[in-house]
């Protein structure tokens, strides 16, 4: 074991020795201390530190070897998790070989394509200046920006690069369209014939201030976390799906995607290994309170020759857990998803995967909780492979449905009580009408209203097991799938049990469905919405889909 990972652990512990205490985690100083030796300007650090706590709402992991730019504008689109009353951006030259000059940085709400919403554009400064130079290996954190950041929305960050950059610090697998234009057009509402790219360059973080913030969760992993095989420009990575679930249930938790396609736990390659980047990509993230460590070890098993043993993977995992706990961060372990049929699958690797998963599921694993990605995605009839409905086709990466299954496997109770109780209404796709607790809640729920009033509003309650319940404003009672689900839904309970508990499922079109714990069936607006809601379906179609409308 020592011959293969001893060097990695030694380097990791060296980085860990400089890690900041939990109270300072995510500060500009923390970023400078962790993986890269140089720092942003003192003025920038002072400005960031003076504004109070920040929480990350979007992030990507930096990598080396990106394209070079000269006298060009980058307009990059980021999809937020939580909102905030002000913002700041972080621009990285972590892997640059020369100083990076940036100028005329702007932030705005994105309309569509490369366009921005008129009136939302704000200039971003660094130490009070509209331009700055970032030393090779360093990070620049902007001044606070008077910019209201909406949750679950697209924000455009534009950066002008006035001189040659050399090979850039970038994030290769963006799964989103970004734009490159000639000259300084950062403040333009639209861009004329820009080039497009699927990567992110220099921009690594968007942070917000939000008084209700409960902190951030970092999802650390490889291509499955990074969103490989997810629908392009659709924000269907599983961390995006998790952000939606958290927002729907009233949690104000930033979700920061630190996946790198091809990344490994023990060995550098596609980006620094998880051991080498944990301090920077997890401990230094603004507001971090949780980390979900996902499927990096699959790449160790498939692309390292000879592959590591399960004991070596477990030793690496234990190092990460110790580092997280030393810095006050809760560590959520993940089982490894199936991959038989992938090009680099071997029986030796499969044996190690199963042993690693057995350890993660065992008592005394050191994890604060477990996200069982394997159980959520494998075929029960052939557990070394994906459920066919979840397989993207390469037998290694899940499709959008499989990614949603991973997000749905995360128990939201791990993030504490919601910051607030959301008030929602439901619009049935069956007929386009609003669901009502009719007759002041005395009648079963039915989709037959065209406007929203008290009978059509519900508190969306988060339960300890990750399920949700609905409390009707019509009478203050909890909605039940009565008679073990054989009767229509009705608001007639004062306490929550299995009949009053539902899994909230996120569908590919942005709608939601409800699976009743009473019988395991999906709730439907039966007969095209003309009959009361009842849990009696085993598959999701139009009658089983609802728009979740926040109050």
Automatic annotation (TrEMBL):
It comes from the Bacteria. InterPro entries: Actin-crosslinking (IPR008999), GDSL_Rv0518-like (IPR053140), SGNH_hydro (IPR013830), SGNH_hydro_sf (IPR036514). One of its GO terms (molecular function) is hydrolase activity. Keywords: Hydrolase, Signal. SUPFAM superfamilies: Actin-crosslinking proteins, SGNH hydrolase. The lineage of its organism: Bacteria, Bacillati, Actinomycetota, Actinomycetes, Catenulisporales. This is SGNH/GDSL hydrolase family protein. It holds the Pfam family Lipase_GDSL_2. Residues 220-404 form the SGNH hydrolase-type esterase domain. Residues 1-32 form the signal peptide.
């Amino acid at each position: 074991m020592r011959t293969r990972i001893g060097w990695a652990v030694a380097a990791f512990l060296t980085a860990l020795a400089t890690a900041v205490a939990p109270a300072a985690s995510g500060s500009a100083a923390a970023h400078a201390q962790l993986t890269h030796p140089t720092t942003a300007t003192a003025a920038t650090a002072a400005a960031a530190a003076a504004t109070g706590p920040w929480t990350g709402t979007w992030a990507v992991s930096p990598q080396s070897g990106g394209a070079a730019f000269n006298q060009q504008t980058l307009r990059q689109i980021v999809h937020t998790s939580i909102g905030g009353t002000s913002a700041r951006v972080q621009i990285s030259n972590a892997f640059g070989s020369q100083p990076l000059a940036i100028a005329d940085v702007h932030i705005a709400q994105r309309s569509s394509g490369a366009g921005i919403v008129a009136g939302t554009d704000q200039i971003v400064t660094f130490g009070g200046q509209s331009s700055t130079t970032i030393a090779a290996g360093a990070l620049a954190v902007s001044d606070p920006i008077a910019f209201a950041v909406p949750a679950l929305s697209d924000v455009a960050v534009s950066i002008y690069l006035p001189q040659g950059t050399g090979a850039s610090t970038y994030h290769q697998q963006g799964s989103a369209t970004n734009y490159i234009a000639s000259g300084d057009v950062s403040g333009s509402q639209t861009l004329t014939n820009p080039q497009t790219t699927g990567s992110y360059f220099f921009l690594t973080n968007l942070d917000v201030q939000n008084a209700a913030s409960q902190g951030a969760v970092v999802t650390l992993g490889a291509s499955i976390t990074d969103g490989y095989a997810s629908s392009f420009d659709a924000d269907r990575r599983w961390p995006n799906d998790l952000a939606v679930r958290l927002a729907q249930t009233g949690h104000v938790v930033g979700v920061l995607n630190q996946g790198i396609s091809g990344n490994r736990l023990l060995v550098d390659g596609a980006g620094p290994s998880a051991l080498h980047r944990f301090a920077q990509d997890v401990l230094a993230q603004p507001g971090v309170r949780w980390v979900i460590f996902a499927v990096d070890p699959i790449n160790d098993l498939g692309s390292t020759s000879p592959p590591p043993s399960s004991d070596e993977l477990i030793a690496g995992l234990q190092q990460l857990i110790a580092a997280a706990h030393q810095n006050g961060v809760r560590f959520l372990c993940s089982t490894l998803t199936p991959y038989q049929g992938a090009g680099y699958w071997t029986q030796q690797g499969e044996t190690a995967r199963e042993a690693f998963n057995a350890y993660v599921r065992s008592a005394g694993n050191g994890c604060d909780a477990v996200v069982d990605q394997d159980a959520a995605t494998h075929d029960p009839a052939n557990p070394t492979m994906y459920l066919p409905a979840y397989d993207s086709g390469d037998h290694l990466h899940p499709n959008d449905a499989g990614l949603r299954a991973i997000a749905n496997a995360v128990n939201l109770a791990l993030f504490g009580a919601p910051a607030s109780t959301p008030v929602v209404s439901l619009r049935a796709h069956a007929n386009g009408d609003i669901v009502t607790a009719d007759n002041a809640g005395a009648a079963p729920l039915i989709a037959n209203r065209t406007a929203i009033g008290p009978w059509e509003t519900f508190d969306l309650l988060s339960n300890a097991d990750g399920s949700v319940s609905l409390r009707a404003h019509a009478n203050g009672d909890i909605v039940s799938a009565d008679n073990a689900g054989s009767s229509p839904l009705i608001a007639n309970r004062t306490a929550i049990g299995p009949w009053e508990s539902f899994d909230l499922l996120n569908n590919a079109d942005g709608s939601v469905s409800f699976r009743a714990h009473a019988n395991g069936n999906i709730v439907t607006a039966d007969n095209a919405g003309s009959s009361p809601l009842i849990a009696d379906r085993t598959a999701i179609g139009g009658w089983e889909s609802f728009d979740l409308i926040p109050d």
